[in-house]
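It is worth pausing here to work through a concrete case rather than discussing structure prediction in the abstract. The textbook approach is simple: state the sequence, then state the predicted structure, then interpret. We follow exactly that order.
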Amino acid sequence: MSLIRPFAALRPNLSYVTDVIAPPYDVLNSEEARQRADGLPWSFLHISKPEIDLPPDTDPFSDAVYAKGVENWQKMLNAGILQQDAVPCYYLYGLKMGNHQQIGLVAVANVADYNSNRIRKHELTRPEKEDDRVRQIDALNAQTGPVFLSYKQHSVIDALVKTVTLPPPVVNQTADDGVVHTLWVVEEPSLIDTITTTIDAMDCLYIADGHHRSAAAARVTEKRQNYNPQHTGEEPYNYFLTVMFPDNQVQILDYNRVVKDLNGLSVSEFISRVASSFDVSPSSNAVKPQNSGELGMYLSGQWYHLKCHADKIPTDDPVASLEVSLLSDHLLAPVLGIVDQRRDKRIDFVGGIRGLAELEKRVNSGEMALAFALYPTSMQALMAVADAEKIMPPKSTWFEPKLADGLVSHLL
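Step two, the predicted structure:
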């Protein structure tokens, strides 16, 4: 079986694209989703977060929520809001946010290649989040949230993308956050064959975002294989929904930290301890790190530029050399006593899309004592970690722009 293959996507009726597409299920909480979907009966949030159609105190992981999602799904299918393409195709999905633009290939990828690590991972998953996605996929009999993959830029795919995107897209939709979502359909057999053989010749693909969705898809595949005595490997459940972008187009923003207290230290004691591993320089302006090994720190109304001492930066470990690791290993753990960032309630994370002003706001309000602005993890660093079969620290990457839910779905 090939690494990827075309599929007959379930897509919004072109008259309803504006109403349907929605932010990914995991970037909004239930109340935000309820507000966003208010007055929009065909918003995909009724499927991805169906608790919005139940009483506000409903447990989002209750049986009633998944049942409501199926009910809403059937309503959209029966009304013709979502329609399946007649034949298997590939699709090109464009995202434009400000001056940044990227175009990815929509395909279904082989779960067997995920299991063998040809589709490479760099994050741990949480069982409860996996369980949620397994239940959602099983209930709908579909994958509705694409996994964001990346591949090493390839001239053949680049040329094909230029050809396919010459005509106007079938979808050209500006979301309420200003991101422009475009879609082209690739149905010419020769182009489909070229895409399949070119991607299949690649050594590997990389999961950028969507570890829980891909892990859940693999669990659904195993479950269905075990229950199907006629299993051949060609069934749709053996593949999972993806959008894959060349590595030179992927945009990773900083993923910053805010901390509640100084671990019992005074400001001067804290800065003195920090200086054992970093050069500490006050700054009259907000500090957005421009180079690897640098951090910004905001404390007591003052910004500081931190530069990690060269002897603290390993050259032979793709995880320990990440900025998130330098901060954790040489400051958060030894100075602030924050060892487990997944569970420690003293630390919180702020996506770079919110800007440095959000860090100042969290500290100036008194909610937090200090903030750290990080240099973004590069795609090359992510791939090095995945190639070494290692795991990044939590909250190492923030990808923008986000893929929309509801633009393409994969029926199982």
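Step three, interpretation. The first helix runs from residue 17 to 20. The chain has a mean pLDDT of 96.
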